[in-house]
Each structure stands twice: as C-alpha cells, then as structure tokens.
Amino acid sequence: MIRAGSAERPAICGRGQDSVENQAKMQVKLIDYAQQPLEKLYAAFRTCYSSDTPIEVWDKIKSEKITHEKIREFITERLKTGHASPLEQIVFWFGIANVSRSLSHQFVRHRIGISFEQQSQRYVKFKQDKLAFVLPDSWSRAGLESEFSELLSKTSELYAKALKAGIPAEDARFVLPNAAPTNFHVMVNFAEMLHICDLRLCVRAQWEIRRMVAMMRAEIKHVLPEIAVFLQPKCGENRMGYCDESLDEWQKCPLGKVRPHKSSLFDLYERYGTRKAQALGEAEYRAVEEKEQL
After folding, report:
1. Domains of the chain
2. What number of other Cβ atoms are within 10 A of residue 290's Cβ?
3. Which of the pair, 83 or 215, is modelled with greater confidence?
4. Where are the beta strands (DSSP E) in the chain?
5. Cβ contacts of residue 153 below 8 Å, gap of 6+?
6. Could you tell me which residues come within 8 angstroms of residue 47 by beta carbon, excluding any fewer than 6 positions away?
7. Beta carbons of 28 and 96 less than 8 angstroms apart
8. Which strands sit side by side in the sheet containing 91-100, from one edge to the other?
9. pLDDT computed for residue 196 by the predictor
10. Residues carrying an active site annotation
C-alpha cells in the first residue's frame, strides 16, 4: 500500500507551468465517526448472542458492569469471525479533496454501505487559474511532463473561453479530462470500509486510490486502533489470509514474500487432505438437500 508520504504522490499541474507551483495535495480527513463505536459494536454483537435485551446490555455498559477492557476483548474475538452485520452500525464520515476523476470513477463503484456527495462540474465554474490537474509521477519519469502540462494548459484555456462565450458549465466541462480533480464528502460503515481495504489496499489496485484508502485507514487508526488492525488488503492475516489473484501477479507482489497464494493452500490440501478436492456437481447438491431435507 502507498503511504501518505509516498514518492508516488501526484503533482497538480496548473496553467502554463512545467514545474508545478499551483500544488493541490490529496487530502483525506476523518470528519466524524459514530460515538462510542466499541460500545455500539459490543451491544450489536451481544444482542445476537445474549438472553439480555439490547436495553439491558446498554444498562450494563453505562453502569460499567462490563468493563472497557472486556468490551475490547470481546470485539477483538468477534471480528475474527465472519459475523459482519454488526459492523454496519459503525459509521465514519470523511472529507476527501483533490483526487482525480479517474479515481472517482473507481471509488463510486462501491455502492453498499457507503454514501457519496461529490463536487459538481455542472454547478461549479472553475476559474482558469484555479483549474488544476493531477499529474501522475509516471509522466515525469517518462520525460513527458512538459507535454502533459502543455495539453492541460490548452484545456484550461479552452474551458475558460467556453464559459466566456456563454457555454454553460454543464457543457464546458466536456473538455475536462480524467486528470481533473474532484472532492468528496463520504459516509461509510465499517463493514464496507473492510471491503474497500480488501480491494484497494491490494498492490494490484491503481496507485492513486490505493494511496487514498491508505490515508483513510490511517485516519481511522488514529482514533480507533482496536478495529483499524482489521483494515488490510484481502491477503492480510486478519482478512481472507491469502492471495486469490493470478500466480503471476502474486509472484510480482512484494507482499507475496509473507502471504501465501491460494494455489499453495490447495497443494497442501491435495498432499495432506483425507480426500482429493473435486468440482461440485449435482450429486453433491442432492446429497446436501437430502441430508437437510430440503
């Protein structure tokens, strides 16, 4: 994963500038989170596993008959299981600024347990000297930064010219590229945050969204380290535990040195399992149905 201080931080390219002065760094800030999150998690889990009513559980929490240490220990053990629905009751609000439209098209594909408000290119008219662009480091390494800057400078000029000519912002925006920055106000629950980290902290994820999610994780870790340890790429020991990408990708991944590939688990099963693994067929489904009297 890319950390906040990574060298892969994109430059933001302003009008007519080869080396950038008009910098606009990616910003990620945890605006707020559900109050008493650990207590809420405990009460949600306990409602499922206790004869006490939720009201009685909360009475014990507030009277401190259940200690904070016991709450933490209980939650840590529950988070090791696959019981995920209580995690939806813990919610975070983030402010995210100066990420590219390329990133935003990926981010909004997360649709369950998350809500977005995004800066509009229809209602916001960008001033030419304020219109910045995300410049990936790969362009600089390839020696094409000046060409990138020149093209986007022309884009800025054309956008400003279109607005001046009376073209509405909703039509002028058609010239803006994926490099155009945007802002988000995001509400996301902990269950979906786990899923986002599963996918977007993976080394195969695109670098910009990987960096953004790493910064979101760092913000949560600052206030809730007890649950932030579960925010990992899917191969992490607190998540799926192994890599399910192709063997070639796993071999190229730096995490492959410390996390196993799924093929090695199947090899162990084939070698030491009591039976050989085989594809599921109708006979297996019927056996289950008969056993369960379905």
Report:
1. 1-34+90-229 (3.30.1360.170), 247-292 (no CATH)
2. 9
3. 215
4. 11-13, 27-33, 91-100, 114-118, 133-135, 181-189
5. 15, 16, 17
6. 53, 54, 57
7. yes
8. 27-33, 91-100, 181-189, 114-118
9. 97
10. 200
Contact 100, 179 (CB under 8 A): yes
Within a 10 A sphere around the Cβ of 218, how many other Cβ atoms? 16
DSSP characters for 140-197? Answer: HHTT-HHHHHHHHHHHHHHHHHHHHTT--HHHHGGG--TTSEEEEEEEEEHHHHHHHH
pLDDT in tens, 46-95: 999 999 999 999 999 999 899 999 999 999 889 888 888 999 999 999 99
Q: Give the CA radius of gyration of the chain.
A: 24
Q: What amino acid is encoded at 194 in this protein?
A: L
Biggest CA pair distance of the chain: 76
Which residue's structure tokens are 């219109």? 131
Structure tokens of 272? 């030491």
119 CA to centre of own chain: 19
